[in-house]
Amino acid sequence: MILDSHTLFLAGFVSQASFALTLTLLAWSDRRTRGMVWLASACGMQLMATASRPMWQTRDGSHLGDAAGSCLLVLLFFFVYMGLRWFVVRRKLRSIGGPIAVSLAMTIVLAVNPFNVDIGLAVARLTVIVMMINTAHMLYKSRFQSLRRAARVTASLLVFLMVVLVFRLPIDLHVLHVSNSIQNYARAATMVGVTTLLFSFVGLFVAESKRRLHDETRIDSLTGLRNRRAMEEIAMQEVRIAGQTGRPLTMLMMDIDHFKRLNDTWGHSLGDRALRAIGGVLLTVTGADDRVTRMGGEEFAVLLPGHDMLSAARVAERLRATVEGLRLSENDEIASFTVSIGVGMWESGERGWAEMLRRADVALYRAKREGRNRVVMCSSEPDPTLEGVEGRAGWRSSATQRAIQPEIEVEA
Question: pTM of the entire structure?
Answer without folding.
Answer: 0.69
